[in-house]
Amino acid sequence: MNKYSALFKPGSIGTMQLENRLIMAPLGTILIDSEGGVTDNLIDYYRPRAAGGVGLIIAQCSSPNMEAKALYSLGIYDDKFVPGLKQLFQAIHKEGTKVAIQLMHPGLLIVAGGLVAPDVLVKVPSITSWMTGDLPYTEVSEADIEGYVEDYAEASRRAKEAGADAVELHACHGCLVGGFMSPLMNLRTDQYGGSEENRMRFPRRIVERIKEKLGKDFPVIVRISAGDDVPGGVTIEEAMRQAVMLEEAGADAFHVSAGLEYLTGLNIPCYTYTGAPILPMAEKIKSAVRVPVIAVGKISPELAEQIIGEGRVDFVAMGRPLLADPELPNKLREGRRDEVRWCLHCNNCVSLKLPLSCTVNPFLYRERLSMPPPIQSPKKVLIIGGGLAGMQAAVLIAQRGHNVSLYEKSNELGGQWNIAAAVPGKECFADFTNILKRSLDKANVQVALGANVTKEQVLAMKPDAVVVATGAVPLGLDIPGISNKNVVQSNDVFTGKAEVKGRAAVIGARFNAIEVAILLAEQGKQVSIVSRGKLGGRKGPENTFVFKTLSRRLLELGIPTYLNTPVLEIADGSVVIEWGGEIVFLPADTVILAVGAQSDNLLAKELKGLVPEVYSIGDCVKPRDAAAATFDAARIAEKI
């Protein structure tokens, strides 16, 4: 008997029949063309996820009018987009999967994405005191709203003509429609503001107009915020009443999320969130309405099976897990759970840098290249370094048919990723190490541990190609006292190699520094953060969702931060800093360094010109995140 029998039981949303209870949540991509049209790459992205076994794909957000156009939005504001959408929907249908498309005017979300074009107005329900910066904030008029209502109906008409089985109205996270529903964002005094009923008038009218235009049988899903996760915003009690109003307007299902995107990280919960943080709110929405409820946000297959089997929700949506492994549903259905590449909720896939990638799936957005072609003439390939980059490269190169050996100087594979997995909340990171280990065995890669390979040893083995993945080592500081016994590295704190005694000062302000400060504060220790830069790093954080979550925790724990503050010396019992133009002795019995890392690329330099092919990947090129390391590995695997 399948242990996930409830997950793979048929279900329905309105008149739409679904083969199972798993749904792909809408996720923005940059695989569209300059106008928002469908591309071959976008179809390639959705096809394996449709084939992977979900019952429904909710395609990424689309712009119901030209004004709502954003870098990550499909176009649906003109009939010219219908042929491309039809091609996309047909590709999804061909795999036996139903498809909906999300309709969204981003409103203030366009600011959260950092994607405001020079000629784009930022449309909002009301201009509030916290909408800062020199941006073109513009309050929408009642005439605007009249036009928007019809725009959403026309966009739905195009979706239906293109072959969509349903549409989803995005009404959460602080988008324009969701902003009207939030008392924090909607300060209007006209018929669209003030009372709950008035604030719901805009989304109600959209749902009603779609039903009027397309008929009651065409399903309309509403993605709703069960709470804004900030003081003064929507509460779960109000969200329950909002859901009832939208059900009365004709909503066929509710996709329950939470959080204002530019103020909280709850809408895309990262590794710091335990369990399924939005689920309890989804269950309360379920208790208030009669139509199906879709839960989302870090819900494991086992929990999904339980809550659907018990009727606590009707469907479970997955976004990032299907980026990590498009075949996740089929693997569960077929009893291959141990083959799943589990999402780590590291949120590298939603960072602000390009190219976007997934830590555990280096072929995200490059689906056509997901299996490099087999080679005709096998080469002898050495991989030096057994961290993520080295292991991933070894697996992919061996799968192509090369003879691969991997050498790791320590007695354990994983490298610095093992340190990451030691951080509280990141324990699941070890899942990726484990699946790579199994993949190495399956690909017949010869692994040697405790092997600190030298240039001479490499040359003696006469390889055709060498991939150097020797990683990086923690940085120090060139200041007096840096060698004192009370100075330790954050990595050693996480792994238990270093004991923190008394008052602590963390030097650094990147995520690693914030995480170690939080760890110590939660242990009851007095801890401060000191950095010559700003919180999140010198250039600011690349991953704003994780940053919002970590910085909120700093505030909750009351951890003092001394930013833009040079450290002059580490003295006995204190850190000497220059703070506000004054010299201050900050009490510290233990000083923790978390100032970054430097590449260990000596072997690569020594081998250059002595071996036919030498490649460097991962942190030994430049210290970066894990997604960059595995992306490097896939890129090199295609070359050899």
Can you describe what's shown?
The chain is of the alpha/beta class. The chain folds into 3 domains: 11-339, TIM Barrel (Alpha-Beta Barrel); 367-473 and 598-639, NAD(P)-binding Rossmann-like Domain (Rossmann fold, 3-Layer(aba) Sandwich); 487-595, FAD/NAD(P)-binding domain.
- The number of distinct helices, counting runs of at least 4 residues, comes to 21
CATH fourth-tier homologous superfamily of the largest domain = Aldolase class I
Beta-strand share of residues: 15-25%
Protein structure class? alpha/beta
Number of self-contained structural domains: 3
Low-confidence stretches: none
* Secondary structure: helix percent: 25-40%
Assign the CATH topology of the largest domain: TIM Barrel
Number of strands: 28
Distance between the termini: 44 Å
Order of strands in the sheet with most strands: 3-4-6-9-10-11-12-13
The level-1 CATH class of the largest domain: Alpha Beta
